[in-house]
Amino acid sequence: MNLRLLALFAGPLAGIVIANSLTITGFPHAPAMLGIAVWMAIWWISECVPIAFTALIPLVAFPLAGIVDSKHIAPRYFNSIIFLFIGGFLIAQALERSGLHKRLALALLSKLHAGPLQLAFGFALTTAFLSMWISNTATTMLMVTIAVPLLARLAEEHGAEAIRPVAVAFLLTIAYSANIGGMGTPVGTAPNLVFLEAVSAHAPEMTPSFLQWMMIGIPMVIAGLIVLMLFMRRRLAGVNWQPSDTDMLKRDRRALGGMRREEKIVTWVLTLTALAWMSRKGISLQSLTIPGWSSLLPYPGVDDGSVAIFGAAWLFLLRGENKKPVLDTAAFSKLPWDIVLLLGGGFALAYGMQHSGASQWLGSQLDFLTGLPLPLMMLGIALAMTFLTEITSNTAITQVMLPILAAAALTNQMDLLMILLPATLSASCAFMLPVATPPNAIVFGTHQVPMQTMIRTGIRLNLVMAVVVVGVVWLIRPLIN
After folding, report:
1. pLDDT given at position 154
2. Pairwise CA distance, residues 456 & 439, whole Å
3. Inter-CA distances, 366 with 111, 468, 472, Å
4. From residue 107, how far is each of 150, 156, 218, 274, 294 by CA, in Å?
5. Inter-residue contact 389 to 397 (CB < 8 Å)
6. Cβ neighbours of residue 308 under 8 Å, at least 6 residues apart?
């Protein structure tokens, strides 16, 4: 029996066994929820059925198990992040359809042509920096719109087979750098804000300032990028192609001529959408506060998804030199709907974990760690958070776990920050599954990163980053009063 056929039966069987063998006091639906989560994880990992089909399991299984009814779980499949995903992909299509992707690719290649590792480092550094200030999802979408045409150009120049490992390395670098970069500032990702709220509630005098967070966050980002580039260096070690011929690149750029109207429209839409993403929330730096433009609106509620759809809408309204819109009806049929469902299934799974109490129960299982030496406890917490985040929202799991860990730390007279910081930072270190984070899903949506490759690379990076998180916190925490 092949492994996919085995997984086809093992998934629901494991789910049934877990649902019927576990008894969790106070959370009657948690065993069923854990069983469904394991079932979906097995099917997603093995790809024994289409991944989009697996993502739809909650629509049937949750109501049948009494976890949550259909009318409450169905909206989880199309939330604001999904529309950020859709808007970003529509803008990416416009880049390609207008021909701007060739111009961008040639411009980048003419400056970064020393080899694949240099290009990967450029993507890593840019993505991580942007991710410190704007959403990881929006950052990834921006960088993917640059990477995909660049990879297409490299494939033309060096051949598709030679560039396939480069494509995988570049796209994984973008997703992982977005997750790593979110650790750099308090506003980089939601779990950081959950941390600040948890510390403020339990020990207000220990709440780090913006700068104090960055004293740990920036070294964490630097260490994470170093580890990531060591991984990518190994992946790119077998790539055998020479630096680009800059004379040829210059000839190709001249051959494009001046920018056409369609290219100018897409350039303006992409630039203004990126600026809107970056400036929506504003920045708070101690006594200095720079408000975002959303605070000037009469009503709250506009987010990155709204910005993405607003930006993409102009591509259907503005007309090029041929008097036709930049995008038309065909653009919707080219969207990666299987990945949209995959991402929605991850949100549904996270909602079910929290609603059923399964997340709370999993958090309570960490009580045994309080009897371990502090470094081992920190490592155990980091590993637990890393792998829990693979199957549930990092915001949800930090909201559940941090109060539990804070209570355990204060009860046992331990340093609160030494316990909560590894948990919070590790919530950004889910690199294994496409559903773990939106950046993972976005790069998987390009159909250039195989599921098994992401899993193999991600699980090793998960393990290494847990150790790095503990090491950075252990070394730098004493410097923060």
Report:
1. 78
2. 17
3. 50, 21, 22
4. 10, 15, 30, 19, 33
5. yes
6. 83, 84, 85, 86, 87, 88, 91, 138, 141, 273
- Residues, the chain: 481
CA distance between the termini of the chain: 59
* Cα–Cα distance, 125 to 142 (Å, whole number): 14
The C-alpha atoms of residue 465 and residue 366 are separated, in whole angstroms, by 20
pLDDT tens digits, 412-464 = 778 889 999 999 999 999 898 887 888 998 998 888 888 889 999 999 999 99
The overall pTM is greater than 0.85:
no
Q: What is the pLDDT of residue 394?
A: 80
| Residue type (1 letter), 250 | K
Give the 3-state DSSP-derived string for the chain, with helices as H, strands as E and coil as C: CCHHHHHHHHHHHHHHHHHHHCCCCCCCCHHHHHHHHHHHHHHHHHCCCCHHHHHCHHHHHHHHHCCCCHHHHHHHHHCHHHHHHHHHHHHHHHHHHHCHHHHHHHHHHHHCCCCHHHHHHHHHHHHHHHHCCCCHHHHHHHHHHHHHHHHHHHHHHHCHHHHHHHHHHHHHHHHHHHHHHCCCCCCCCHHHHHHHHHHHHHCHHHCCCHHHHHHHHHHHHHHHHHHHHHHHHHHHCCCCCCCCCHHHHHHHHHHHCCCCHHHHHHHHHHHHHHHHHHHCCEEEECCEEEECHHHHCCCCCCCHHHHHHHHHHHHHHCECCCCCECCCCHHHHCCCHHHHHHHHHHHHHHHHHHHHCHHHHHHHHHHHHHHCCHHHHHHHHHHHHHHHCCCCCHHHHHHHHHHHHHHHHHHCCCCHHHHHHHHHHHCCCCCCCCCCCHHHHHHHCCCCCCHHHHHHHHHHHHHHHHHHHHHHHHHHHHHCC
Segments of the chain scoring below 50 in pLDDT: none
pLDDT of residue 41: 82
Q: Give the position of tokens 């949800």.
A: 396
Per the listing, tokens 């653009």 go with 331
Please tell me the predicted confidence (pLDDT) of residue 414: 82
Which letter, b or e, does each residue of 390-401 get, where b requires 16 or more Cβ atoms within 10 Å of its Cβ? bbbbbbbbbbbb
Give residue 286's pLDDT: 53
pLDDT, position 284: 58
Count CB-CB contacts under 10 A for residue 385. Answer: 29
Give residue 1's pLDDT. 55
Give the tens place of pLDDT for each residue, 189-227: 878 888 887 887 778 888 787 778 888 999 999 999 999
pLDDT at res. 224: 96
Token pair of 312 as six digits: 């993409």
